[in-house]
Amino acid sequence: MLEIRALSKSFGGVKATDNVSLDFADGSLTAVIGPNGAGKSTFFNLITGALRPDAGQVLLNGIDMAGKTPPEIVRHGIGRAFQVASIFPSLTVEETMLAAVCADQHRAGVMHRRFPLAETRDRAEHAMELLGLAGKRNRTAATLSHGDQKLLDIALALVLDPKVLLLDEPTAGMGTEERWRMIDKVRELWEKQKITVVFIEHDMDIVFKIAPEIVVLCYGRILATGTPDAIRRNEAVIEAYLGSDHHAGAVA
Amino acid sequence: MTELQAGQGAQPLEVPRIDARPQRYRDLLVALAAFAVLALLPMVFGSKQLLDFVIRCAAYGLFATSLNLLVGYTGLISFGHGMFFGLGAYGFGLMMQKTGVPIPVAFVATLAMTCVVAVVIGAICVRLKEIYFAFVTLAFQMLIHSTILSWQSLTGGDQGLRGGIPRPPFLGIDLSNHLHLYITSCALLVVGLLLMRQIAQSPFGYTLRMIRDNATRASFIGIDVWRAKLVIFVLAALFAATGGIIMALFVSGAYPEFAYWTISGEGIFINMLGGVTTFLGPMVGTVLLLILNDTVTRITEYHGIVLGIVILFFAVGLRKGLMDFVVEWFAQRRGEGRG
Could you give phi then psi for residue A79, rounded to 5 degrees? Predict the structure, then answer.
């Protein structure tokens, strides 16, 4: 269970996250939406330790993450992928996965064996297969397509066996068709891995189609939370964000 | 140019990667073969000059390869790595002159002392980013150099450690014997390279590559970036100090130039010459630089100009080191042969 308690963060006079409290149940799939500058990425950065909250708590199974460093938070089980694929350009897909698992297993010391153990290999293999990257294992990350780089970024988060997976715009910069393929993948991962997934998404069609739970942020505050139907009918959301004819397509 | 940039330049070619799982003992066999060749060299060529050249290669090669662990593998551009070369030479020389302990004891004690200094300096430096890291390491280098110059009673100031370093025999090895010194230097070189190779290819080596490529991402997969950088900073310092010890044994003394910033500069030169994307690049660069140095100084007193032109050729012309160039050339040819 991931509980956010009265989380706040200001930059100068701007409240990027303003007294946000939310619960994410184990195994839930939640979309975070909101207009540009609504504080979605800041919200993720606060949870993962990239930013230190001014106030409030981030409780993962009762343990407060606020103030911890990113490596500590990752080791507690909150993994994340980035809006712009954050990968290691000169490593191959397989090297990336193996190196990540070694680090996670505390087997990344100087005198640790150069040839990974079977259990290290299995975990790396599993993640590559889940994301459909097994066939590209010997490609250096820099030579992968944009979509594959995003998948690799997610694989990097997933290979650590997180309890909570935060995806910052998994479909950013993709064409329509690729978007759907990506979002199907996200849903598939969520169903297979039975982990808590929270993702940021701009495309309303996608959000309403796949997310059982939606959180709407606006000016750093929670505007509404609920099921797609409830959000669609929520007057505040319609006024602030969706507009009267949101069915026209993507709103960004 | 960092290795990352160099690598990116090559990426459109899709350089085929050497399989990540070579035979387990390949490196060990290569090292043994290299040592055998080096050990047999004196029987084939009796020239003292050649053996001297190899000893200097061992000293500078260990130093330059350890610098590449920082520059090429971790993306830490240190302009002060030479301080550890100097520390090794002075630490060892002083220990032998003042205490008269056996050579292996002085060797280990020198490394221990270097370790302590490197931990302190590293703890301050590795927090800093890029250019600040470079300059602060340079500042520490200058600090150590000035200390050596001004602490005359201990270090002999600008005269260096004079009167020779006593080299009492141990375990049947007599380092005042030229051949024994040669074999010992070769052994230190080969063992040092083998250990650094292990570091580079170990999971920790891949942690370093991840930090070089994208330190932020590395921290988000649970890596303590600061700690990993400190560990490699200290390890690299130990190998640089070993190079310094070989140098001190070779010249039977230690001089302030060993701790001057130009040594760090030469380390960077060597890495640019040989290339930072291959493990042996700096070793090739060392041989190149020493050959250049020896031949050019014989021909002209303006050897600085010649070296500068050569460096410009590599940096601006090839945009990579010799080994990078060779490896890419082979990879390209293999690619053509296949398709």
Answer: -105, 155
Structurally, chain A folds into a number of domains equal to 1
The average pLDDT across B255-278 equals 88
Q: Are A118 and A197 in contact (CB under 8 A)?
A: no
CA distance B75 to B210: 10
User: Sheet of A213-218: strands edge to edge?
Assistant: A78-81, A164-167, A196-200, A29-33, A213-218, A221-226
CB within 8 Å: B219 and A71: yes
Residue B18 has pLDDT above 80, yes or no: no
Residue range of the domain that includes A206: 1-71+196-252
C-beta of residue A134 within 8 angstroms of C-beta of residue A92: no
Question: pTM of the entire structure?
Answer: 0.87
Tokens of A200: 């940021």
Strand order in the sheet with A2-11: A14-24, A2-11, A55-60, A63-64
Supply the ipTM of this predicted assembly.
Answer: 0.86
> Where would I find the H helices in chain B?
3-10, 26-44, 48-68, 82-98, 103-125, 130-150, 152-155, 178-201, 203-219, 225-251, 261-274, 281-299, 303-312, 322-338
> How does DSSP classify residue A139?
S
Which among A100, A110, A115 has the least Cβ separation from residue B204?
A: A110
Distance CA B128, CA A59 (A): 32
Question: Is residue B11 a part of any domain in this protein?
Answer: no
Residue A103 has pLDDT above 90, yes or no: no
Using alpha carbons only, give the angle A30, A32, A35 rounded to the nearest 5 degrees.
160
- The range of the structural domain enclosing residue B228 comes to 24-259
Q: Chain B closest CA to A68's CA: distance in Å?
A: 12
